[in-house]
Structure formats: C-alpha cells, structure tokens
C-alpha cells in the first residue's frame, strides 16, 4: 500500500522543508515545525501569527498544568475527580511588524518567495520570505528560532528584515502575550477542553530596559509561572523605544528609519520558569537569568545546540538506506521524541509531546511500552528519568488504589500529568489496569538492558512490588475455571472492547509482573537487606505476600481457543458478531467518531494491537506458528484507529514472515505525522507512534530481543529498502549494527567484550573496534 506523501514538503534526509506557503496546512505545520527541549515546547506558528485557528499557536511547559473538576452529568463513587490540563503559557515569540505604515501579514500583499525549514542536525527552525505589501513595498525576512537544548528555560528568536526597495519607518513590536488561545469545543475525546481564564491570575508584570516579564499564578494547581523576554536590536541608525503594559500583555515597540538594503536584526531571548509553590517566581529571577543568557548571542547558542544534537545523533541516529522518505520520517520522529522528553525525573513524555495540547498534555502507558525502549537503547540515563517519574507519583497511585477498594499497593493513573487519575471515561481509562504491568515491564527491561542495580534498589523495586500487589486484590482463583487465577472487568489495550473478563494481554502481562515481583523481592533481600527491610516496613509488606504472587502467576489463566488455534482477546470476544467492514464507509473511520461505544463494544473489532502486542512483549513464550495464527486472525479485525497499532503489526509481521506487510506498516508509522495519516496531527504529534518507528526497525527488521541479559538479532532487509544502520547502548557498551541485503555486521564500538546471538549463532566481540560480518540474512519465510 503506497501512502500519499504530503506534496507541500520536500523529502530531505535531515530537514523538513515547506516551499511555498500553504495556509490550509497552517495548523498542521505549526505541529510539525514545533520545537522543544523537554521542558519548553513551542508550536511552529509564525512570530506575527496567521489566521484565527485556535490550535495553531501555543507554548507549553512540561509538567505544568491547571486543574479543573471533571463535571459528570451522572457521577458515581470513585470516578476521577479532577482533570489536569497542560497550561498554555504566555506567547513570547510574538513580533508585529509595520513597514512604512503597513502591517506585515501573510494574509495580505504578495508573497514572492517562501521557505520554512526545520534543520534537525542544527535544531533550528528557519523561515525565509520575500513579501510585497499592498502598497508595493518589498522586504525580505529571515527568522530563526531555537529552543535551547542546553538551557532548559530558554528559547531564542532571531528576526531579520531587509527593505529591498523602500526607505521609511519600520515599527517592530515585540510582545509577551498572555491572551489565552481558546481550544475549540468538540466531541472528539482526543482534543483538549477550553481553559477557565479566571484560574490564572497575573501577579507581576514588567516592561522596561529591553525587558518584558509576566508572572502568573495558577490558582487551581498552585503553580507560579514566570515568563520573560530580553531584546537586542542591531541597526545602524536611530531607534526609539516605547514600552507598554496591558492586562494580559506587555510589549516594547522599536521605531527605526529603515534604509534600502540595510538589515534590521532583533534577537529575542525568552525564558520560562514554573514551580508548584505559590509566589516562588518573581520578575527579578527572570531578569537576572535573561541578563546572563544575553552574554551569548544567537550564533553562540546555535553552536551549543548543534553540539548537543551531534551527541544525540551520534548515539541515536538510524540510517535507513534506499528510501529517502522513510529516512526523513525516521529522523523526524526521533528528533521529536528527543524534544518531548522530560529530563528531570519529575516529568515524562505526553502523548502529543510538547507540540500541541491534544489529550490535554497527558502521559499514558505510551511511554513505557512504545517510547522508553528507544531511549533505553540509545541514552539509558534518559530512560531512567522516565521511570523515576513513576516513582515520584507512587503516593498518588497508592491513594487511587484505595479509591478502588484495593487495600494494598498502588494503581497507576491511566492518564495524568501530576499523578492524579484524569481519565473521565473509566471503561477506556481506569479499567486499563494493565498500566501497572506495563510500568513493571519497563522497569525490568531498563534494569536488564542497562545493568543499573542502584535504580532497582532505590526506586524500581518499590514500583514493581507496589504495582504487583494490585493483581491479588483485583483477581481471584476461580473454582469454575479449575482454580486458575482470573481477572475480571478490565479493559485491555484495545479500546474498542471494554470491561471484559480475562483480557489475554492483561493476564499475560500481570503474570510477568508477578514473576518479576518475586524475583525483585528475593534480589532485594539478598543484595540490599536493609533497603528490603525498610521497604517492607514502610509499605507493610506481609511475609506471605510473595508466596501469593508466585501462586497467582503459576495459576494465571490465559484464554485459548483450541479449535481456532488462537488466543481469544478475552472470554467473550469470540461470541460477538464480526464488524461489517464491507458496509462501513471509508469516511466513518476512526469508528470512535461515528459510532456509540456500545455499538463498537458488541462487535469483534479492534482499535489497536492487543493480543499481538502481548505476543511481542512476551516473545519467548510463544512459537512462531502461534504468533502467525494470532496475527492472521486479528489483523483483519483491526482498524488501526489508534496510531499505536501499526508499529506492533509491523514487528509481528516481520517476525512471522510477512515482510511486505511489515514494510507497509512501517511506511505508515514512519510518516504518520509528516503525512498526517490520522488527520489530527494539527493537534500534536503522536509520540508513541514515533517510538514505534524505532521499534519497527530495531525489533522488527533487525529482530532484536532481550532474553535475560542476552541480546539476540534476526535481521533482514525488506524489499524496498537497501539496508539500515543503528547504534545501541547495552550495559555500558556501544554496539553498531549494519544490515544490507548481503550481510549483517556487528561492531563493538566501545566497552567490555560481549556475546550476542545472531539467529542461531553465538557471536563474541572481544574488543572495541572489532566487527563481525555475517553473510546474508535468511529470507523471511516461516518454516512451519
Ligand atoms: C489509544 C491509547 C493511547 C492513547 C494516547 C488512544 O487512542 O487507544 O492506547 O494510550 O490514545 O496515545
């Protein structure tokens, strides 16, 4: 299936280029050209704005939110009480421009030339244009923007205009604007709700001495948010300044007598700070910080930015040969993941990163299952931060468990920012208890691939053990099923089936979780007895509990249908009628926007990978034949209405010998946002799918699996690609894989000797710099 590529963008290995302005794509491009550094996220809207689209602009701070009560028409005990909504902070990039009395706007006049370019090696967004005003004055504009990867509170705008054929007054008004952009009201559950502006109170403002600042207090969540800007203007001539302060905006106006051919340059340093403590941020802090930053110019920051990205790409780059569009998609996705990732152990990666307020900026299981592996195998210290975040919200998860009558342990929120459960629709939210097992899976994966036992001792063990206690509380040994351990009334990953008994994925992952909890408990007692004793006392862990975990794991019930030779998704799935795909018009997808949930729930139809995700994550427990039968059964029943689906299908297709399908899915995944396949990228990128791009390649095409502490590979190159190359961090080593149609080569770039498995062969790399080349990967045909 050849996907339609966005015709308005050029294919380039390191850049995203829009040549010619496409107003109809303004919102979409504001997402694609967004910049971020894990704390600040800045949409790619123009400095001077364009059009009224409410979702076009925005600046967000990771982890900073407003809280609002969830209003239910009909409520019930234990429903999530509050929503946390990622805050839109003042727009600091705003610049208004008048040339000789005419306001510059792309909605008017004549655009003679336009190019917007995101350079992913440099971390800079460029916009170059030539514009003729309605009165016939022509100017050239080059704006550059970077969100600093080295100073998390800072971003810079460099705005340069040159009059080409006129002399006269130029007015540049630089604004710090707290006017809230209101989200649309919509029935789409994936969008953000409108903000209550009374919740945000202005505490202090400043406009003076080249500086602007606004300090706000978010009453509902207690955040103090400070935003400031410092300016440097470069112009050979007189320049008058005028400052103004309004209720929700401060500005400085520069008036200059412009001359033909003479450039005017404005550098705007913008800073944001936030703390969840009333009154903690003041204008002095902003002022001092910005003053400090202004010792360096834009070019200095550009050098630092490139250096930071060089080190990122050195570890994380994936070369995809033989298809430039896929190469671009891969790099674009990895770049955005890096921009989205909270790096302080207190913040995470939202489903839309920091590129838009879709899903209200919430964090989901997307992190642990889809995104974390990329960081784990390229920058493990960043993966650790994601898990530290889970540790930081354990108290909230314990409190939530009590609300659900779970007496011991913790239940992690399905969606949240600060830790409180925010899912207003529990059948597709809180009921996804599998999140506990997903997080434990990620802890195990992280600890095994990094060898970081300190983390396991200090934080990981508590996450795993507290999470595991849930299963004994919500499951039971069922006498009607031979005393097997059953778990009722849960929702698995597939959100087109809800509140079912014995969801295959949930039971499978719970079993692995319980096994691991036993292992971790023993390990802790043997290796850190004092920590084990302190933890047991603090969480009141009963001596008998680990034995109960073992019994539950050993007796775990997994649905099977002997006749069909497949795993039913849950106890009732096979009794339902099939969805009428032939009678469903193409414009009725995603189904969730066209059918009541009950219509969907009573059919055999999947939104996303569920059983086959389990087969991937617990790969060694199933044979290839089994995986193929399940794939053959579920694939035709799956709409892939979630962007989390296609990557898992690609990986299993690779494994079971469907290389063409694997490539088809990979093509969708790699360019999901670039080509706006789900038609909602204007509300933000899809970070899980971006992480899935890396998974498709490393775990799909290269067939990488981790068994215990051994890495194994089963690489091939699908027709349509010429090869690929990527690096891995593994237990302190750097490895490189290069796969083409002829051979696979493994290099130990640095670190201790290592044993690897290539298909059925054991490889031994004994010193840094050593490479082993193995001839042509076997054809992907499944021998059954
Ligand atoms: C998917 C969930 C996912 C969420 C956020 C939903 O459409 O069904 O699995 O966690 O999006 O990405």
From TrEMBL:
<dbReference type="InterPro" id="IPR017045">
    <property type="entry name" value="Malt_Pase/Glycosyl_Hdrlase"/>
</dbReference>
<comment type="similarity">
    <text>Belongs to the glycosyl hydrolase 65 family.</text>
</comment>
<dbReference type="InterPro" id="IPR005196">
    <property type="entry name" value="Glyco_hydro_65_N"/>
</dbReference>
<protein>
    <submittedName>
        <fullName>Glycoside hydrolase family 65 protein</fullName>
    </submittedName>
</protein>
<dbReference type="InterPro" id="IPR011013">
    <property type="entry name" value="Gal_mutarotase_sf_dom"/>
</dbReference>
<dbReference type="InterPro" id="IPR005195">
    <property type="entry name" value="Glyco_hydro_65_M"/>
</dbReference>
<dbReference type="InterPro" id="IPR008928">
    <property type="entry name" value="6-hairpin_glycosidase_sf"/>
</dbReference>
<dbReference type="InterPro" id="IPR012341">
    <property type="entry name" value="6hp_glycosidase-like_sf"/>
</dbReference>
<dbReference type="Pfam" id="PF03636">
    <property type="entry name" value="Glyco_hydro_65N"/>
</dbReference>
<feature type="domain" description="Glycoside hydrolase family 65 central catalytic">
    <location>
        <begin position="331"/>
        <end position="694"/>
    </location>
</feature>
<dbReference type="GO" id="GO:0016787">
    <property type="term" value="F:hydrolase activity"/>
</dbReference>
<feature type="domain" description="Glycoside hydrolase family 65 N-terminal">
    <location>
        <begin position="18"/>
        <end position="273"/>
    </location>
</feature>
<keyword id="KW-0378">Hydrolase</keyword>
<dbReference type="Pfam" id="PF03632">
    <property type="entry name" value="Glyco_hydro_65m"/>
</dbReference>
<dbReference type="InterPro" id="IPR037018">
    <property type="entry name" value="GH65_N"/>
</dbReference>
<dbReference type="Pfam" id="PF03633">
    <property type="entry name" value="Glyco_hydro_65C"/>
</dbReference>
<dbReference type="InterPro" id="IPR005194">
    <property type="entry name" value="Glyco_hydro_65_C"/>
</dbReference>
<feature type="domain" description="Glycoside hydrolase family 65 C-terminal">
    <location>
        <begin position="704"/>
        <end position="761"/>
    </location>
</feature>
């Amino acid at each position: 299936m050849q996907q339609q590529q966005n015709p308005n963008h050029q294919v380039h290995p390191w850049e995203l280029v829009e040549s010619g302005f496409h107003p109809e794509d303004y919102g979409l491009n504001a997402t694609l050209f967004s910049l971020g550094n894990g704390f600040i996220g800045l949409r790619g809207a123009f400095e001077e704005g364009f059009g009224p689209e409410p979702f076009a602009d925005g600046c967000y701070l990771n982890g900073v939110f407003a809280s609002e009560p969830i209003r239910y028409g009909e409520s019930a005990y234990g429903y999530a009480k509050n929503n946390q909504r990622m805050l839109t902070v003042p727009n600091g990039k705003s610049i208004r421009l008048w040339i000789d009395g005419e306001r510059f706007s792309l909605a008017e006049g004549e655009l003679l030339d336009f190019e917007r370019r995101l350079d992913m090696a440099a971390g800079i967004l460029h916009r170059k244009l030539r514009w003729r005003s309605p009165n016939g004055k022509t100017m050239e504009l080059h704006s550059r923007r970077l969100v600093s990867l080295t100073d998390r509170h800072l971003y810079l705008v460099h705005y340069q205009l040159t009059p080409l054929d006129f002399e006269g007054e130029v007015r540049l008004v630089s604004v710090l604007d707290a006017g809230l952009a209101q989200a649309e009201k919509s029935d789409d559950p994936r969008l953000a709700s409108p903000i209550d502006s009374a919740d945000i109170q202005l505490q202090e403002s400043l406009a003076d001495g080249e500086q602007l600042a606004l300090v706000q207090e978010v009453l509902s969540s207690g955040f103090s948010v400070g935003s400031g800007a410092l300016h440097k203007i470069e112009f050979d001539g007189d320049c008058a300044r005028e400052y103004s302060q309004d209720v929700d905006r401060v500005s400085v106006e520069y008036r200059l007598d412009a001359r033909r051919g003479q450039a005017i340059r404005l550098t705007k340093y913008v800073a944001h700070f936030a703390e969840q403590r009333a009154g903690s941020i003041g204008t002095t802090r902003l002022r001092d910080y910005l003053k400090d930053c202004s010792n360096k110019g834009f070019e200095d920051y550009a050098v630092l930015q490139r250096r930071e990205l060089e080190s990122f790409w050195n570890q994380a780059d994936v070369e995809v040969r033989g298809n430039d569009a896929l190469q671009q998609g891969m790099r674009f996705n990895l770049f955005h993941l890096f921009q989205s990732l909270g790096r302080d152990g207190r913040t995470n990666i939202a489903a839309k990163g920091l590129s838009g307020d879709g899903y209200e900026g919430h964090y989901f299981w997307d992190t642990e299952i889809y995104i974390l592996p990329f960081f784990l195998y390229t920058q493990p210290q960043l993966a650790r931060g994601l898990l530290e975040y889970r540790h930081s919200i354990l108290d909230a998860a314990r409190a939530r468990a009590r609300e659900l009558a779970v007496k011991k342990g913790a239940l992690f929120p399905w969606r949240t920012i600060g830790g409180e459960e925010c899912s207003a629709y529990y059948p597709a939210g809180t009921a996804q208890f599998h999140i506990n097992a997903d997080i434990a899976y990620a802890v195990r994966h992280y600890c095994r691939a990094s060898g970081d036992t300190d983390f396991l001792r200090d934080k990981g063990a508590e996450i795993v053990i507290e999470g595991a206690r849930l299963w004994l509380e919500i499951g039971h040994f069922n006498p009607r099923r031979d005393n097997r351990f059953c778990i009722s009334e849960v929702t698995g990953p597939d959100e087109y089936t809800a509140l079912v008994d014995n969801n295959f994925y949930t039971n499978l992952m719970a079993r692995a979780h319980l096994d691991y909890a036993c292992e971790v408990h023993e390990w802790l007692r043997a290796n850190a007895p004092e920590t084990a004793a302190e933890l047991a006392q603090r969480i009141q862990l009963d001596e008998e509990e680990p034995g109960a975990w073992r019994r539950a794991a050993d007796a775990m019930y997994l649905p099977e249908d002997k006749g069909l030779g497949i795993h039913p998704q849950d106890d009732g799935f096979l009794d339902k009628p099939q969805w009428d795909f032939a009678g469903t018009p193409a414009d009725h997808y995603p189904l969730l926007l066209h059918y009541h949930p009950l219509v969907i729930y009573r059919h055999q139809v999947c939104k996303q990978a569920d059983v086959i995700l389990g087969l991937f994550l617990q790969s060694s427990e199933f044979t290839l034949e089994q995986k193929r039968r399940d794939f053959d059964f579920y694939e035709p029943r799956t709409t892939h209405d979630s962007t989390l689906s296609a990557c898992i299908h690609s990986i299993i297709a690779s494994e079971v010998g469907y290389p063409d399908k694997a490539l088809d899915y990979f093509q969708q995944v790699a360019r999901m946002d670039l080509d706006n396949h789900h038609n909602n990228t204007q509300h933000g990128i899809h970070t899980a799918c971006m992480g899935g791009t890396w998974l498709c390649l490393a775990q799909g095409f290269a067939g990488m699996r981790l068994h215990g502490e051994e890495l194994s590979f089963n690489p091939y190159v699908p027709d349509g690609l010429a090869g690929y190359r990527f690096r891995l961090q593994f237990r302190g080593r750097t490895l490189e894989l290069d796969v083409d149609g002829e051979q696979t080569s493994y290099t130990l770039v640095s670190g201790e000797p290592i044993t690897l498995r290539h298909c059925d062969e054991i490889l031994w790399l004994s010193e840094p710099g050593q490479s082993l080349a193995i001839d042509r990967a076997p054809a992907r045909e499944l021998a059954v």
